[in-house]
Structures are given as C-alpha cells and as structure tokens.
C-alpha cells in the first residue's frame, strides 16, 4: 500500500492519497472520516440558518450571529482552501454514573473534546504534509470556529442529520464529537449522506423540555442550553424538567434507535475521572470550588464553570427539598 523512503510515503497502485489520509485518521483514533469540496454554502442553507438565529431560538448564544462571511464560506477561513476533511470521534463511556446521581452528559465525562480532537487533527495535517503534499496549508477546528460543521458532516458523507439535530453515523449512532480539517490540497470528495430519520419521532416524543418538533430545534428550551449556556437562575418549571440532570442532557440520544449500535470508546482521554462516580446529591450540597476542580478539571464542564454548575445544583436541591 505504501512505499517508504527517507522523506515520505506516497500512494502507489490502487491506493490513493485519500485512502492514505483515511487510514491515518483511523489510526489516530477517529471513528469516521469524510471529504467534502470546499465551496460556499448554498443559499437555501444560509437562509434557513439565518432564519433560525433571527427567530431567537438560540437564546444568548450571540456568537452564532457573528462572522457570517466565514460561516458561509470555508475558503474565507483558509485562503486557498480546496478540501474539508470531516472527522468524528467516539466518546460513548464504558462506565456510567449511577442513575440516581446528579447526571453529567456523557461527552463531558473525559478530557475536553475541543482539545482532544484538535490535537489529533493537527497530527493528521502533519501526516499530510510529510506524506502527501509538503506544501499543504491547513487549519483544524473542533466546535471552535464559525463553520457549519453538521452541514459539512452530511456533505462529506460521514452521517446524516437526525430530527434532534444530532449527526447520526450509520451503524454507529450519535455519541461522537466532530472536527474539521481545512486544507489547500485538492482531494476527491465523498458522496453526501442522504439518509433520513423517516417516521421515527422518538427524540421528539421523549425530549423532557419539548425542545424538538418536526419543524426543528429550540435551543432556549433545551436542558443542555439551560444548564450550560444560560446564566439566569432556573425557575421551578425548568427545574422540574431537569430530573437529576446537572450538566447537559443525553435524552434525545439515549432514545435514538441508531444508538443500539453504540460501542464504548477506547479513547483513553475520554475516560471519566473516577471521582465523578462519587458525586451524589448529598456531597453536591457542600461542593466547593476546590472539589469542583478535582472532579471536573480539564473537562468540558468548564464551559459552565463552578458558578454555572452550582446554579443548576441549587435548582435541583431546592426541588428535592420540596419533595422531602
């Protein structure tokens, strides 16, 4: 498959540069990889996105309104960009919290995925530079730039967009974080994924906050938004919807039929801190900032921070006290 010399490995025979890049991505720990041609977003996609943002359904996430020229044209993010390599990494945990404990979304169990995915993407760029195109210029992202990553995930063929808004990887499920590597090397694009959910409405029917319907998704109702992005105190109705969710919500994923294929990640950086499994409502009452750091340092929970986490904790504990 490869010819190795003192400088590089080059494609030979039936194995293309795309084959080599995909093989390396899998070796680096990615679960799926697809390639799309870098080009401006179609007008209908731009209009749909703008309509959603203007509707107010994204709440205080003002960053979604900014940098539209970058968001709608990846060649603005990287001059001379010809290809977008879309990547997915499995975070489904091999061990889970007790169901009665204050729940943390699975993606936040281990090390912050932004750093993990970007680091691996940078390694893939280095591989391309050393083995495919020594002059390549690239930029890697993991939910860290104004790019419509779910659009590109579909365009590259790695998955399709479910009614929940989540990207569903065929025969793998939804428990994946996404990343993109923009490069100036021209690669053969993969076919877009045109699959759809069909008549299934399990994510709609089971959403505890009714944030999903056939017309789309309202982030301001979503429990992930309420526990992570929102800074206001939670009202009684919102607290009632939370159940025992402390950070995020995995309900739409847990009920998705495609997640019957979910396999526990082997990625060591996504393994949970053992202290997480000791978290209970009793010790949540007395959780100070030092204890918070011991449990959640280096994870995505830093998005909410100690103050944000304790805001949700107060709502949960108040609700439990009323029951008692």
TrEMBL record:
A GO molecular function held by the record: epoxyqueuosine reductase activity
Keywords: 4Fe-4S, Cytoplasm, Iron, Iron-sulfur, Metal-binding, Oxidoreductase, Queuosine biosynthesis, tRNA processing
Family matches, as Gene3D superfamilies: 3.30.70.20
SUPFAM superfamilies, per the entry: alpha-helical ferredoxin (SSF46548)
Chain coiled-coil ranges: none
Span of domain 4Fe-4S ferredoxin-type: 188-217
EC supergroup of this enzyme: oxidoreductase
Enzyme Commission designation: 1.17.99.6
Record's protein name: tRNA epoxyqueuosine(34) reductase QueG
Organism annotation: Falsiporphyromonas endometrii
Gene transcribed to yield this protein: queG
């Amino acid at each position: 498959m490869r010819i190795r010399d003192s400088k590089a490995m080059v494609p030979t025979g039936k194995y293309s540069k795309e084959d080599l890049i995909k093989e390396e991505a899998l070796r680096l720990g990615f679960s799926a990889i697809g390639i799309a041609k870098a080009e401006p977003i179609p007008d209908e996609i731009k209009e749909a996105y703008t309509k959603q943002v203007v509707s107010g359904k994204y709440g205080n996430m003002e960053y979604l309104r900014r940098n539209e020229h970058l968001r709608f044209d990846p060649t603005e993010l990287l001059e001379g960009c010809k290809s977008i390599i879309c990547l997915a990494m499995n975070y489904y945990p091999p061990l889970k919290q007790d169901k009665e404990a204050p729940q943390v979304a699975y993606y936040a169990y281990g090390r912050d995925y932004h750093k993990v995915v970007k680091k691996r993407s940078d390694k893939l760029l280095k591989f391309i530079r050393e083995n495919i195109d020594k002059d390549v210029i690239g930029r890697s992202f993991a939910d860290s730039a104004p790019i419509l990553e779910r659009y590109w995930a579909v365009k590259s063929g790695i998955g399709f967009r479910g009614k929940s808004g989540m990207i569903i990887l065929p025969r793998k499920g939804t428990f994946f974080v996404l990343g993109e590597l923009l490069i100036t090397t021209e690669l053969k694009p993969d076919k877009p994924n045109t699959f759809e959910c069909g008549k299934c409405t399990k994510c709609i029917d089971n959403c505890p906050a009714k944030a999903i319907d056939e017309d789309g998704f309202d982030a301001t109702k979503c429990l992930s938004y309420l526990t992570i992005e929102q800074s206001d105190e939670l009202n009684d109705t919102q607290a009632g919807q939370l159940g025992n969710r402390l950070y995020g919500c995995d309900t739409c994923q847990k009920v998705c039929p495609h997640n019957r294929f979910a396999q526990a990640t082997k990625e060591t950086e996504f393994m949970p801190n053992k202290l997480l499994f000791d978290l209970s409502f009793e010790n949540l009452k007395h959780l100070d900032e030092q204890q918070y750091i011991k449990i959640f340092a280096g994870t995505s929970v830093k998005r909410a921070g100690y103050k944000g986490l304790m805001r949700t904790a107060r709502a949960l504990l108040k609700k439990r006290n009323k029951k008692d």
